[in-house]
Design goal:
The complex is a heterodimer. By secondary structure, chain A is an alpha+beta fold. Chain A is about 30% helix and about 45% strand. Chain A contains two helices and eight strands. In chain A, strands 1, 2, 3, 4, 5, 6, 7 and 8 form an eight-stranded mixed beta sheet that branches. In chain A, a hairpin with a 2-residue loop joins strand 5 (about 40-55) and strand 6. Helix content of chain B is about 60%, strand content about 15%. In chain B, helix 3 (about 95-110) links the parallel strand 1 and strand 2 (about 115-120). Chain B is elongated and about 115 Å long. The chains are: A alpha+beta, B alpha/beta. Strand 5 (about 40-55) of chain A pairs parallel with strand 6 (about 205) of chain B, so a sheet runs across the interface.
């Protein structure tokens, strides 16, 4: 039995994951971070992307739309602004959102650029997740 | 003396009302369950965020950059403040609305020398404070039917911005806290400046970003979550209060029906007796 730690992923309206996992990989603001049991305490901001983890040998993942991660001696807590299971993602909608965000960035006039960038990033994460893990 | 027909009418009308109150009670019960689930589901995030904020605040304490954060700045004198009042859009919920409205009004009157503006979530609160001549800085409705995070976040962003710009010196929220189905209690909490509770925990963290940067990104989120939690609590309280009120109303209606039926029977009996007496005395007169 491999060592495990508790992974919790919460969004403002629900707790989406609470499991004993053997490893996790999170989209940190400065690049993906791999977490194994007994990781040193760490606090970081998360970028939109895929949070994958392993439960009893099976790989799983959720898409997070940015947030924060706290690695504690007792486990890992992820506070996501939004999070979705890949099978909940509406691929068409995500693609449409991506196209819209990219168009806005190109036209950019007086548009809110950080907001459009963030939207594009979120949409890209969703599309990628749906493509890999789609039904 | 009311006639039998009057009694029947009365009973029918009370029965109709009772049917409505019963139906409303059922609906509220169903909505209450959903609202309660939402409160529970929102709890982990709020708790974790609070703890994380405490940890980060401890790490950032003493740094000048953290003291500069607009959402943390304590103003020396509070001249102008905003009270977010969370009420229901509709009535028939017992003391729910008057509880929060009166409590909020008292809170504002107790703070001397502070000019308050009311940021109202829910129609009943807006009506109440508008009638009494308060300044309504914002009016939001239809939150309690199905609370949407983005709506609440918009309110949070608005008050945060006004606070950061120095326009207002404090933000409070008044809502009915969901204690149990039978009891809801008024609660007034300070939202801004963010009341930081530094945790006693002494874990040394590796910070991928400087603590004050994390703090700056966590704080607005904290304001949102505080309001979001209040809205969810208030929603659960509203349905609970309505359910209790409608249950009492249904029971009252049953009592009224019982009493009126009794009266009606008495009147009916009296008229029967009178008729018998008439018949008997008529017959004996013929003898």
């Amino acid at each position: 039995m491999a060592a495990t730690f508790e992974l919790e992923v919460a969004t403002p309206d629900r707790l989406i994951v609470r499991e004993q996992v053997t490893d996790a990989e999170a989209p940190g603001r400065n690049g993906y971070l791999g977490i194994l049991p007994d990781h040193a305490p760490l606090l970081t901001e998360l970028a939109p992307g895929m949070l994958s983890y392993t439960v009893g040998g099976a790989k799983r993942s959720v898409v997070v739309g940015g947030g924060w991660m706290e690695v504690l001696p007792t486990g890992v807590r992820v506070l996501a602004t939004v999070a979705e299971n890949p099978n909940e993602i509406d691929l068409k909608r995500a693609e449409a959102a991506l196209a819209r965000a990219e168009r806005r960035l190109k036209e950019s006039g007086e548009m809110d650029i950080p907001r459009a960038l963030a939207a594009a990033e979120r949409a890209r994460a969703r599309v990628a997740a749906a493509a890999t893990f789609g039904r | 003396m009311p006639s039998l027909i009057d009694f029947r009418r009365r009973i029918r009308s009370v029965k109709n009302t009772q049917q409505i109150t019963k139906a409303m009670k059922m609906v509220s019960a169903a909505k209450l369950r959903r609202a309660q689930e939402a409160v529970l589901a929102a709890r982990p995030f709020a708790n974790m965020l609070g703890e994380m904020l405490g940890n980060v605040a401890r790490a950032a304490a003493g740094s000048d950059a953290a003291k500069e954060l607009p959402l943390l700045q304590q103003r020396e004198t509070i001249k102008k403040a905003v009270l977010v009042v969370i009420s229901a859009d509709r009535g028939l919920a017992g003391a729910f609305n008057s509880n929060v409205n009166r409590g909020a009004q008292k809170f504002m009157q107790d703070q001397e020398g502070v000019t308050f503006e009311v940021e109202s979530i829910g129609k009943k609160g807006r009506d109440y404070f508008r009638r009494r001549g308060f300044t309504i800085s914002g009016d939001h409705q239809n939150f309690s039917r199905k609370p949407v995070y983005a709506d609440v976040a918009a309110v949070a962003a608005k008050v945060s911005e006004r606070y950061a710009s120095g326009e207002i010196d404090a933000v409070y929220v008044a809502y009915n806290e969901f204690k149990s189905v039978m009891t809801q209690r008024l609660k007034v909490e300070q939202v801004l400046p963010v009341p930081l509770t530094e945790t006693a925990d002494t874990t040394e963290y590796i910070y991928e970003q400087p603590a004050e940067v994390l703090l700056a990104s966590l704080l607005p989120r904290y304001v949102e979550v505080e309001l979001w939690r209040s809205v969810l609590e208030s929603t659960a309280s509203e349905h609970a209060a309505r359910m209790t009120a409608m249950d009492a109303a249904s029971r009252n209606a049953s009592e009224v029906i019982e009493r009126v039926t009794l009266q009606m029977n008495r009147v009916r009996q009296a008229s029967i007796t009178r008729e018998i007496i008439e018949v008997v005395s008529g017959a004996s007169a013929l003898k």
